[in-house]
Amino acid sequence: MNYDDSGQAGEMRLLVREPPSTDRRPPADRILAELPTQADDVTTNGIGDYADALRQVVETIAGLLGADGGALAVVDQDGAVQWATATSQPAYLLTQVEQDFEEGPGVDARATGQPVAIPDLRLGQRWPRLGPVAASHSVRAALAAPVRADGRTLGALTVIMATPRQWSQAEAQAISGYASILGRLLVTAAEAAQQRRLAGQLQTALDSRIVIEQAKGVLMARKGLPSLQAFQLLRHTARSSSRKLTDVAAEIIATPHA
Question: Strand, helix or coil at 49?
Answer without folding.
Answer: helix
